[in-house]
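Workshop exercise sheet. Pairs work together: one partner reads the sequence aloud, the other fills in the structure field after running the prediction. Swap roles for the next sheet.
Pair: D.N. / O.F.
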Amino acid sequence: MIADESGRLDRVLASHFNEVSRARFQNLIADSQVSVNGRTIVEAKHAVKPGDAISAVLPPAGTFEPQAEVMELHIIYEDDDLLVLDKPAGLVVHPGPGNWSGTLVNGIIAHCGDSLSGIGGIKRPGIVHRIDKNTTGLLVVAKTDLAHQSLSAQFASHGRDGRLQRAYDALVWGEPDRRRATIDQPIARHATSRQKMAVSKSNAARAAITHYEVTETFPPGDHPAIVSRVRCRLETGRTHQIRVHMAHIGHPILGDAVYGAGHKASATKLADAARTALQNLNRQALHASLLGFEHPVSGEQLIFESPLPQDFQNLLDALKP
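Structure field:
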């Protein structure tokens, strides 16, 4: 690649390749796998100038097969092809760095056993969409390759063909100017924080569209309200999409420590009971409440709804007079 910006070598590389972490580039540099203008560089802080030719060798990632782990799963529907479950807060969906065990995938492998016919020739569940660790709600998982292909296609179209429906309930700070609106803003990895996403106009940004509707405000009748309840429907499925979009329009989700840190002082406006309920929630107030899709084998339209989890409901009740 040819650098189009100046800065530290590891930072420039990470900004061009969103799928590779800055930490991994630092390791590659230390292992003499990166060169600048034909010279091997072993310091991540090496200063890069626009026009520098950078070459990096990325060895293939090691294979990892998740293991079965027995855990309690709230399954609300299951057949030979798929299962739908209600994910609790705190549960990571897929194994990854820092979470190689104790994930939803580990639990599903244990639950399904030999009924998994295989995804890509390996007996593992087909994850076609994910929910953040501290977001709750509905998730569908494929048990066969055929179901995985069909569901993946439905999620790729994001409901534009009428088969997929997804809706989330959230509590946000303040009251949006419009009761119903569409946020059409592309999203990319944050420029400086690799753990965050952000609205971006960079070439790496991907289209992201969220439709929202304000369904309640608290206190009722006050304008602008301190808190609003919104129903969000996704037309795309980017990482942290609802959280990023609502924060972008100035109404981050309650309890969101990543995208709503600037609104911590807003909690002082709440009544004591609501403030305590928010502290007890200790996560973003976001719940995947509705999921609908076409069954990959029967063609039947399936629709599932999930009630608010108790901690979310407690906060909602405390906000009401």
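Discussion prompt: Helices lie at 9-16, 22-30, 104-112, 145-157, 241-248, 272-281, 310-319. What would you look at next?
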